[in-house]
Amino acid sequence: MRTSDYLLATLKETPSDAEVVSHQLMLRAGMVRQVAAGIYNWLPLGLRVLQKVEAIVREEMNNSGALEVLMPGVQPAELWRESGRWEDYGPELLRLNDRHNRDFCLGPTHEEVITTLVKNEIRSYRQLPLNLYQIQTKFRDEVRPRFGIMRGREFIMKDAYSFDVDKEGLQKAYDIMYAAYQKIFTRLGLEFSAVEADNGAIGGSSSHEFHVLADSGEDDIAFCKALEFAANVETVALPPPADSRPEASEPMREVNTPDVKTIEQLATSLNVSASQTVKTLIVKGEDGLVALVIRGDHELNAVKAEALENVISPIAFASQDEISREIGAEPGSIGPVGLNLPIVIDQSVAVMADFICGANKPEKHLVGVNWERDLPLAEIADLRQALQGDPCPGAQNGETISIRRGIEVGHVFQLGRKYSRSMNAYCLNEHGEKTLLYMGCYGIGVSRIVAAAIEQNHDEAGIIWPESITPFSVCIVAIGYKRSEKVRQAADQLYQQLVDTGVEVLLDDRNERPGVLFSDMELIGIPHRITIGEKSLEKNQMEYKYRSAEDGEAVQADQVLNFIKSKTSTQ
Ligand code: ATP
Ligand code: MG
């Protein structure tokens, strides 16, 4: 491809509305353009990368024995009513009507459609195992579409669904997918980790997420090298604190805290550490509101809170109005003393003495508060998010977790018989008995991978593509292509030779200053660059530079083809 024939839509300025590097670089490199919030056009350069990711995913899915299908993006409501998710799914499901006023939705996932398809095609265990997958556009009306295509509303997913006659079959299918995912992310050239995504309550590991590790990730991953432990921090259960509760040493008293809205402001105004304060969060429960109390320097773990019997799932915080109505206090000044609601406190709160909390009155807090003296000890639970340095689950020798951020790019999940039960998907087992199918589902965020790869691989100048998904492998920067017959001839010849050898090459033949040519090629991230200019040609040389190398090197002009071939064929 020649840039003069291409839509090279690079931008000099960093678009101001793009928060993360991958979004900025995808816009600046001319890979995508926004159409509406969370909805994007893929330009030729971006599409090349997307299609490479797709090709690797498709190849490894096929290698694993899965079969490709294509299901519709628009799905009838009846199927969702059958599974019970028409009511349960919430506003991420975009619902629409056709001209006959029938209900439809845009598919955010395809369990309903695939279960219906398979139950109509499969009669006997002899037709199993079966794993069907597709690479297709999904629509989820995300509350906060952001970070460009990383969290879009319309995005491309590979979703696979396995069907087996028994649990053992499902485990096998799961293991095969797990191994295929390892291959896929390795081939993509990304630093990734498979992490446990449930707390093992169902027995064993029935769900893993695959994360690309990058500082901008939205998820915290807890690692312990010594114990080979990696889990989404949401799932990390914490043991009760080793220390017991100290004796009370202060009387409880009320203090004025004007203009204090946050824990930081509270800690600063009273000159204490945030760990001496507690925050009281009011959430909706099965019968009325529930107060959850955690230490001021801790974060609530929503998954743990949702698991409480009395708390509704997904977690819903009470509105300001509800809080004022039910408690008669402002959200910033609530505390457990005298609070007439069911109260659940985190384990670490139960061992606090002389702590500080809201007084349930505007602009007032209580200091020197003590359990079993100023208020009864409440129900205790593990409610907080694990932190760096917390004990690793299963630690025998004081092993602790460290936390890194990750971008979820894949998810493997044992569904069991959830959908086959609600949608009556049976087959006959080897004894001729009707038995519900065991299902697994396996997603990969194909479009998200493009952004995740950039988050992990970039520098000041732009993207640094892993070889496996780069839009072009080699670029030829021809300085003075339009002016110099010699440069033109050498560039055209090398270009044609590379094309003939099957190397994906971009010839930059634009009539621009060398600085513009170099910075554009660096921005779009092509790994191998050959520069051809009159001066070096006089010495019978061209310059080679690897994208992430500091400096270039001179290569004999007649050796360049072999040189590049050796560089690109080792990949
Ligand atoms: P998240 O927690 O990021 O919302 P999810 O748990 O909803 O993800 P799954 O339903 O497991 O995601 O979907 C499979 C994969 O699809 C995810 O691992 C992710 O890579 C990708 N994905 C999910 N939502 C989006 C989105 N809004 N934009 C782009 N990719 C997405
Ligand atoms: Mg989601």
Keywords summarizing the entry:
alpha+beta, 16 helices, globular, binds adenosine-5'-triphosphate
Produce a short descriptive summary.
The chain is 27% helix and 28% strand.
Give a written overview of the molecule:
- With 571 residues, this protein is an alpha+beta fold.
- 27% of the residues lie in helices and 28% in strands.
- It has 16 helices and 30 strands.
- The strands form 8 sheets. Strands 3, 7, 8, 9, 10, 11, 12, 20 and 23 form a 9-stranded mixed beta sheet that branches. A 5-stranded mixed beta sheet has the order 27-26-28-29-30, sandwiched between helices. It has a 4-stranded mixed beta sheet with strand order 14-15-16-19.
- Helix 1 packs across helix 12, helix 2 crosses helix 6 and helix 2 crosses helix 12.
- About 1% of the residues have low confidence.
- Bound molecules: adenosine-5'-triphosphate and magnesium ion.
- Adenosine-5'-triphosphate binds next to strand 8, strand 20, strand 23 and helix 12.
Beta strands, count: 30
State the major sheet.
Answer: 9 strands, mixed
Provide the gyration radius in Å. Answer: 29 Å
**What distance lies between the first and last C-alpha atoms, to the nearest angstrom?**
21 Å
Report the helical percentage: 25-40%
Low-confidence stretches: 200-204
Overall geometric form: globular
Number of helices: 16
Structural class: alpha+beta
Q: Which ions, cofactors or small ligands are bound in this entry? A: adenosine-5'-triphosphate, magnesium ion
Instruction: Estimate what percentage of residues fall within beta strands.
Output: 25-35%
The residue-averaged pLDDT reads: 95
